[in-house]
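Quick one:
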Amino acid sequence: MNRLAHETSPYLLQHADNPVDWWPWSAEAFEEARATGRPVLLSVGYSSCHWCHVMASESFEDQATADYLNDHFVSVKVDREERPDVDAVYMEAVQAATGQGGWPMTVFLTPDAEPFYFGTYFPPAPRHGMPSFRQVLEGVRHAWSERNDEVTEVAGKIVRDLSQREIGYQTAQVPGEEELAQALLGLTREYDPQRGGFGGAPKFPPSMVLEFLLRHHARTGAEGALQMARDTCERMARGGIYDQLGGGFARYSVDRDWTVPHFEKMLYDNALLCRVYAHLWRATGSELARRVALETADFMVRELRTAEGGFASALDADSEEEVPREARPQKGGGGRREGGSGRHVEGAYYVWTPRQLTDALGPEDAELAARYFGVTEEGTFEHGQSVLQLPQQDGVFDADRVESVRERLLRVRGERPAPGRDDKVVAAWNGLAIAALAETGAYFDRPDLVEAAVGAADLLVRLHLDEHARLARTSRDGRAGANAGVLEDYADVAEGFLALASVTGEGVWLEFAGLLLGHVLTRFADPESGALYDTAADAETLIRRPQDPTDNAAPSGWTAAAAALLGYAAHTGSEAHRAAAEKALGVVKTLGPRVPRFIGWGLAAAEALLDGPREVAVVGPSLDDPATRTLHRTALLGTAPGAVVAVGTVDGDEFPLLADRPLVDGEPAVYVCRNFTCDAPTTDPERLRAALSRSSGTSG
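Output:
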């Protein structure tokens, strides 16, 4: 029975035609398990996961394996991106039991959803000491049927153990100078001075930590913080993790040198890094940072924007292996290119050999491209293929010729079979993209990027928000998914709306942010301690209520909510929102000095708290007035951590910050405040720039 055919998740739809009798995560699936007395196989993955595809082709598309599953298990397939709550609680169990985790995640459950056996990828035959998937299935079936009482007892104990792992959070003091200095010291110890970034292989873009480092430098003037951020950004931008032709970043580097990426491209990575590079340019004027910010923004709009105006989740790492041009059949219609070998290979779309450069460019330009992009006969990837990098300084090459080469290679690459796209719209990740595109568009005078941000925000309001301002987690093809938004959705969308309000001067986005943050206060926060949960109090009950303040690939819902609450409080003067932000940031006082790499967004929010954050009100005769626009852009370019900007007219009521803010001698003026205590207004952009860029600046 095809129960996945009407799901909104591309990952689930990829499995809709499997011979496995899949169920989506639902009460009905567990009722079936109870009625038939069978255990549940829970398989969790996502569409751009390489090993998820491998296990699917090896096992879930195999008729004999499917028959065994259908006879003895109730099989449940979950997209971790649609149900991060389900993924979180069972991943915690996997990591507790095995010491590691990953996807595909394979967990066996009782009909009461209690886990009793765990794993990730299992091969079709025994390999490297790992049992085959069939052996695992047979072992689990035998244990379930022959030792059911023992299995049930073990499952109950696991759930009890997990319940005792709750964060014992007591309202703590907010982090101060000492904790942030200790966090910086900890990062310095883990920093890789030769290659940039932190730790060894695999190496992930430290987006949230980079934001903290830039804010710390802006507030304190610490050159070491700026140096770590600048060098890491340059190393990544020159490495293979960055797409040197089309812009945008891959998920991570498999080596310490940023050379060979895991080729999937995620919306959240690119949104976060676009914003980091834009902020690095704002702080330093780096031309490299400017180029990467704009190219990454253009990549998101070009490759990830959906027909409805939102942004798709990801591009796959794999694509069909290219075959020689003369061997290709004629291209057919439709969105998917024809003529590939049919064999999906990781990175096939992105890598080059010297011969391919020659075929694309001719001998002379191919030689230049090989030197410029680091393409060698030996290769940096597999089978003599190279990932494009920028090992040389740009200045030694003719810029016009390099740009011509880049454009031609991009055009030729566009004829290759393209990676698949997961085109579901995830609310949280679109919130991050809205913030990045709005700010990047404002900084670099690119109104088209701001318009793209507005389009995504419009989609979220139109499709994801119900009449009670509750968020749906995902949508696809203009249809909202059934899964409720989690804390990161409310927090990151609020963050995006706050950035959009500052850039556009449209107070409606501040109002929407307030509606979302109202849910954070009433449905996600512990009313006494201020601790935050990843799911709402009225959400589906799982074996435990997930709660994690540490950053992973994107900001945790906890720290993202703290940052958004703080920004909203600065805009409105709401003591309730500021108090909630301060309570939530107590976790940074504890974790910041201990694990700074994993709470970077919380550290960045703490920097904003210590700086105020500044409240900047720009008042003019109209938003189209040139002098007002100059002051507004200058305010947006200020580096004061977490500063909020409101722009409007004297008689406007879009923003609370604009109340009782007159023009000065008939001229547009700016009021820079902290805790609603303000400096004397200024009409001079240079004075404003100095006021918002000085280290440890003070107002009052």
